[in-house]
UniProtKB/TrEMBL annotation:
This is Adenine deaminase. Keywords: Cytoplasm, Hydrolase, Metal-binding, Nucleotide metabolism, Nucleus, Zinc. GO terms for cellular component: cytosol; nucleus. It comes from Tothia fuscella. Pfam families: A_deaminase. It is found in: Cytoplasm; Nucleus.
Amino acid sequence: MCKTLLHPFLESLPKCEHHLHIEGSLEPSLLFELAAKNNIVLPQDDEAFESQDALQARYKRFTSLDDFLHYYYIGMSVLITPEDFAQLAMEYFQKAAKTGVYHAEIFFDPQAHLERGVSYSTLMEGFTTARYRAQHELGMTTLLVSCFLRHLPPTNSISVFNQPDVLKSYRAGQVVGIGLDSSEKDFPPHLFKDLYAMATTLKLRRTAHAGEEGPVEYIRDALESLGIDRIDHGLHLADDEELMALVAKRGTLLTLCPLSNVVLKCVETLSDVPIRKFLDAGVKFSINSDDPAYFGGNYILDNYCAVQETFDLSIDEWKTICRSGIEGSWCTTSRKAEMIGVLDDLVYNWRRKLRVSA
Ligand SMILES: Nc1ncnc2[nH]cnc12
Ligand SMILES: [Zn+2]
């Protein structure tokens, strides 16, 4: 089958995005615009910040997760007011809606903002405005997931988790769950066991980055120590057949980010992402964009298309992927049913179309 033939189908699929760091959707144009507006001086000893083109060129040469994170944390320093956070999130929601995202669960990094003096209420105010607009202007449902930074001491994550305004955002349902991100190597999941135990007590959803740059043992550790409902990346799960079978049996969703893995040199080429292995083993996964503004402006549909070009999947395999994403989402049952209805109709029509043209 012609690989590009399915691109309009991929575009129409009712997609759920589960792995998108909202700070990673800060395009260089907005970064420079907000730096000027907020009088933020970008590093003068790094020529990457001399122009948008220079910055974009630097983004093409990431050598590792940590090399990328260096730019990611500098980039977010331009976000100061609630309006900045609202603009950032709204620009992402608009791009996502255009490429068929029906539902987005977005990560944000509260510690990275609190550390530089931006209050939690500033973030919440901005995100709430954008989420309201996404629902009313784009018909898109959205949820917030608060990620904790594993390169900071676990005690810091616990004190932020317990701040009264943070607890209030959980109780009010503004934030539905927690995640764990940033540098992975040397920061095994069990260091955050106490944080996740508190999240469990509050009945929050739990996910964690594991097996992106770190070994498959970190995936086992995250499952055993943190009681996670989802695994972010989970690229290295394919290194352990037994654990892979267990994850498939449990139905735990991996949130894969194929183009991110290539850009951050976690794999050499897209064909090294174990998409085929996961499908054959019955491991559920969704496909996501991670930090699209840092990865060549490749958003979710670009990831779907790149996967199709590399793996030549069938309509039924895409149905499986899309359905796993819908079922693994943290939205309401009725929203899931709506998306499954759209998916079933789309697949029915495309099967007929391909049969007629065969
Ligand atoms: N890909 C990634 N891995 C870990 N932490 C991150 N923070 C933003 N993007 C990330
Ligand atoms: Zn990520």
